[in-house]
Amino acid sequence: MYSNCLVVFALGVLSGVAVAQNPQASDPGAFLGKYCATCHSDRLKTAGLSLEKMDLAHPSNTAEVWEKVIQKLRLGQMPPQGAPQPDVSARQDLISWLEGSLDRAAAEKPNPGQPLLHRLNRSEYSNAVEDLLGLKVDVAALLPPDDSAFGFDNNASILGVSSVLLERYLAAADRVSALALADPNTEPGSDTYRARQDLSQDQHLDGLPFGTVGGMLVEHTFPLDAEYEFRLAFFRNNLEIMRGIERPHQIELSIDDQRIFLKTIGGAEDLALMHNPTDGSNAIDARFRIRIPVKAGLHKVTASFLQKRGIGTSRLQGFVRSSVDTFEVTGRPHLEGITILGPYNASKSGGKPGSLDFSCPEGSSHEGSSSTTDSAGCARQILQPIERRAYRRPVTEQDMQPLMEFFRRGNAKGGPDRGFQMALRRMLVSPSFLFRAETSPADLPAGTLHPINPVELASRLSFFLWSSIPDDRLLDLAVSGKLENPEVQASEVRRMLADSRGERFVTNFAGQWLQLRNLRNARPNSSEFPDFDDNLRQDFRKETELLFASVLREDRSVLDLLRADYTFLNERLARQYSIPGIYGDNMRRVAVTQEERKGLFGQGSILTVTSHADRTSPVVRGKWILENLLAAPPPPAPPQVPPLAENSEGAPPKSLRARLEVHRANAICASCHKLMDPIGFSLDNFDAVGAWRTEESGSPVDASGQLADGTKVNGVVSLRNALLARPEVFAGAVTEKLLIYSLGRGLETYDMPAIRTILRQTAPEDYRLSSLIMGVVRSVPFQMRKKPED
User: Fold this and answer.
1) In sequence order, which residues have a C-beta less than 8 Å from that of residue 48 and are 6 or more positions away?
2) Distance of CA 321 to CAs 245, 315, 468, 495, 605, Å?
3) Which of 90, 145, 506, 787 has the fewest C-beta atoms under 10 angstroms from its C-beta?
4) 276 Cβ contact list (under 8 Å, min separation 6)
5) Residue 317 has pLDDT above 50, yes or no
């Protein structure tokens, strides 16, 4: 069933390539007795662990314990500061001996883990529909959000199924199939797109026409060639008074950059209407409605104000925006939302919004029918390649039978389009589409390790790098057996990352690993940070995504995420960072000359998601770095942890550092805070929205501290240098996150040898990100499968 090429490749992986050898000049028993067993003895069992009688002849028998020991030693967290410390070479000898012993045992008896049945999450479903049918659908309106585990929402263990969820998938399949076939019976509905309340609209917004100010852009899939009604709504303050209507302003509505209408809001008449705010606002809204014919398909809809000649749009101190100054009625009107209603009066023979052609190919068989549109033979030729891609494997007659039955029923009721719609609906709720299941050859004994089926490998690759189904090229290579060749795999990985669909890897992997998705929930206090708005929130995320994409596309070291001497800025973001000479709203690559701004630590996205609404949080920042950049999360907070003392009214304000020192006086809190706080305080020159500061609560910022391994730091630059001094730690953390994301499961003790193999293979290349990705693809957990027990 499997070619010799793949078997040879798998055996090469299993042989423990580049496994560390047992160093001759180490005595692990003496080391443990001198530096560890004092606390971790049978009598004390500090942290619940005793190393006194561990079997050093067979470390793999207690691999879970030794993996924790390796992590603590590598990070310098053990022995703790104040206890006798081994020299660097002795520490490294023990680490190498433990890793070598565990890795050799793993090579002799590899364990790839047991993958679970994997349901497509909401993002994967949306991408699969887009790639399969050429349809961009708002899946967020059709399916509930997914939970997250181990930092990612593609984890199979939490992608459960319920009767309610199945009903949502049925409704989604009904909606998608109706769109794909342009169902003429589609009932009129409405979709409302809203601007975030803190979106500043007193400036030109990226993507909107030049010469305009404010407004919003939406992409909308129109289901039919039909008439649609467009309604604009404008922001009101909490007294129901519409903002900015003292003077007239012109607003235009465009579809695909073609103006639909240009109307005026504001002036004497509109101002008079505000004597009755509710009725007056409604009367103004009623003027901004228009019904026009629109072709089926995806269209860009924009609404924005024309910039008046002579009136600048640059940011002014104390600017007006929608989330603050709610009693302010002067300035410009703000667009609150666009509602699209329809379809009305649909064309009987219009186009379809998707990219698939459901007409019969030339020379197709008709199974006894003289028509090329109502024959089952034609339907079979059209549906079979769609089903192959949807199910991500060659399809059988057994797969085709239910689709053909649904086609015949629909065709009998409403013609071929109705038949295709019914067949698509059935396909989109099939377990073969909604679930990723992997199998083992029937003739293998239970517990046997084997390479995964090449077709299933194609799905692993596509959902890893595209969050979607394989394309025809990848599937063809799998079916033909060519994908078993490691060189072909490497070529496909490069192709897939270079493809436009590779952007999904950036947004989904980096967005979740670095917690960029949390930016949408970040709402810094407007009194403390009046310049923060949704424009800045979006720019923060773009900057970090562009940095990650550049490291990937330019084949750079993953360490450049920490040390990059360039970033991506526009005028708004440059002003936040006090970087002069950057103008316009387009993001562009900019050299970074300020040491504190280099890499991720200087980016507002990271600094904002690791802060509270009204202040920075050294605890959150330290915990974020431990979890995401060092793969060494602190233990969960114990119950009944006392809250951080707040400054009391009438007393001199204490700095955050002073209040945390009081908090750490509690022994329950001290053990964790001594790991997190020094890391977090080193970033304290950045405020809660990433601006540089030198004072906090009237006192100079103290960014000094001592890391768990004794390294003294004083500010962000020294923290970065400390991390870069041990590049394998950061590279190992990234590799762990990549492996979790690629497998769709959390990592176990038996996965650690695979991580170390990848690091040893990529160290000579300075841990290039592309090499780490390729190392994950070639790893035992990704390539292999163990046949489950009966």
Assistant:
1) none
2) 15, 11, 39, 44, 21
3) 145
4) none
5) no
Q: 13-22, 354-363, 757-766: which has the highest mean pLDDT?
A: 757-766
- The neighbour count for residue 478, using CB atoms within 10 Å, is 25
What is the three-state SS of 52-69?
CCCCCCCHHHHHHHHHHH
Residues 6 or more apart whose CB falls under 8 angstroms from that of 163 comprise none
| Cα 607 from chain centroid (whole Å) | 17
User: Encoding tokens for residue 196?
Assistant: 């975030």
139-195: pLDDT as tens digits: 888 999 999 999 999 999 999 899 999 999 999 999 999 999 999 999 999 999 999
DSSP-assigned letter for residue 507: I
Which pair of structure tokens corresponds to residue 93?
């000898």
Residue 523 and residue 529 in contact, taking contact as beta carbons nearer than 8 Å? no
Q: Give CA–CA dist 772/760, Å, rounded.
A: 10
Residues 133, 172: Cα–Cα separation, whole Å? 14
Cα–Cα dist 328/241, whole Å: 9
* pTM for the whole structure: 0.90
Across 373-387, 427-441, 579-593, 669-683, least confident range: 669-683
53 Cβ contact partners less than 8 Å away, ≥ 6 residues apart: 42
Contact 224, 181 (CB under 8 A): no
Q: What is the mean pLDDT of residues 263-277?
A: 88
Give the tens place of pLDDT for each residue, 736-768.
Answer: 999 999 999 999 999 999 999 999 999 999 999
Q: How distant is the alpha carbon of residue 769 from its chain centre?
A: 17
The amino acid that residue 732 corresponds to is G
Predicted confidence at residue 449, as pLDDT, reads 92
Alpha carbons 183 and 166: distance in angstroms, whole number: 23
Cβ(111)–Cβ(451) below 8 Å: no
Predicted confidence (pLDDT) per residue in 444-473, tens digit? 998 899 999 999 999 999 999 999 999 999
DSSP per position, 642-673:
PPPPPPPTTSPPPPHHHHHHHHHTSHHHHHHH
3-state secondary structure 261-307: EEEEECCHHHHHHCCCHHHHHHHHHHHCEEEEEECCEEEEEEEEEEC
- Evaluate whether 273 touches 284 at the Cβ level (below 8 Å): yes
Burial (0-12, 13-18, 19+ Cβ within 10 Å), 705: buried
| pLDDT higher than threshold 50 for residue 730 | yes
